[in-house]
Amino acid sequence: MGSLLKNALKDVFTKEEIEKLYSSFDIIGDIIIIKIPDELEGKKEIIANTLINKIKTVNTVFQQISSVQGEYRTRKLCFLTGSNKSYTEYKEHGCIFKVDVLKTYFSPRLSTERLRVSKMISNNEIIVNMFAGIGTYSIILAKKNPDCIVYSIDSNPDANDLCIINSKLNKVQDRVIPILGNARTIIDNQLKGKATRILMPLPEQASEFIDSAIAALQNNKGVIHYFAHIKSKSKLDAVEEGKINCHKNFQCYHYKIISGRVVREVGPRIYQTVFDLEIF
Ligand SMILES: C[S@@+](CC[C@H](N)C(=O)[O-])C[C@H]1O[C@@H](n2cnc3c(N)ncnc32)[C@H](O)[C@@H]1O
């Protein structure tokens, strides 16, 4: 994808300008979302028009004008050119997803992570995805593991609606169960003691929901994929800091770290980490 952007812009912009743009864009289906650095703000129309003219699969260009924010983790977008719509289709690991980039969270940058976890699932697992969004993780896990069941919770009604649609689209509606609501309340009321595995893909806040994640496990045993944002001076140190973060938050439980890794850098010296923890 990076080379697409570089090629599209190479006749109009300098190498330095392209490098600045390169680190901050997403292509989701036929939509490009790009962060424009302050020094290139005056050239945003040229950037948008160049992208839409040169990349044939793109129909819409948005400028991202806020960070991901609020409970629903959405970002503010400013329409730049093309067809003014926020709805698109995105393909990943043999699955197809309807996405609304304005009303729901979605990041193609978690693709490797979703595939990694899908390869860890054993037979007949029952998984609770506490922060499921439009169902990307849940559906890929279900598609790759034909006998697992995934309870897919999200508090954003638009994300839950898309999860219902996407489950049907990928023919896993009998095993992906979308549930609208707050993960804590849903687990308390419906999912206590059900799961062999829990996904917690809400790095900003996952630590506040650890008691609910443990409550959802069968006999307090199973695997938790715990996401966090870790401040650290380097990627390497982030894994060590991540271990300390796990200890701080899981010290009242019996746990073992199976593995831990940096998923991506999300800001200057801030890393998104995921730790796979066995609870026993
Ligand atoms: C970072 S997104 C994760 C999306 C998804 N896992 C993916 O890979 O695309 C976090 C999601 O958690 C949802 N959320 C935030 N707080 C929640 C809560 N207390 N209970 C349930 N869902 C919540 C948001 O609406 C958002 O869709």
Could you provide a short overview of the structure?
With 280 residues, the protein is α/β, with parallel strands linked by helices. The protein contains nine helices and 13 strands. The protein binds S-adenosylmethionine.
Structural class: alpha/beta
Q: Characterize the biggest β-sheet.
A: 7 strands, mixed
CATH architecture of the largest domain: 3-Layer(aba) Sandwich
CATH class descriptor name of the largest domain: Alpha Beta
Q: How many independent structural domains?
A: 2
Instruction: Name the ligand types.
Output: S-adenosylmethionine
Sequence stretches where pLDDT stays below 50 over 5 or more residues: none
Superfamily at the CATH H level of the largest domain? Vaccinia Virus protein VP39
Oligomerization state: single chain
Strand content: 25-35%
Alpha-carbon distance between the two ends: 42 Å
- Give me the strand/helix succession: HHEEHEEEEHEHEHEHEHEHEE
Q: Count of DSSP helices?
A: 9
Principal-axes geometry comes out as: globular
**CATH fold type of the largest domain:** Rossmann fold
Mean pLDDT: 93
What is the helix content?
A: 25-40%
Rg, please? 20 Å
Please state how the strands of the largest beta sheet are arranged side by side.
9-8-7-10-11-13-12
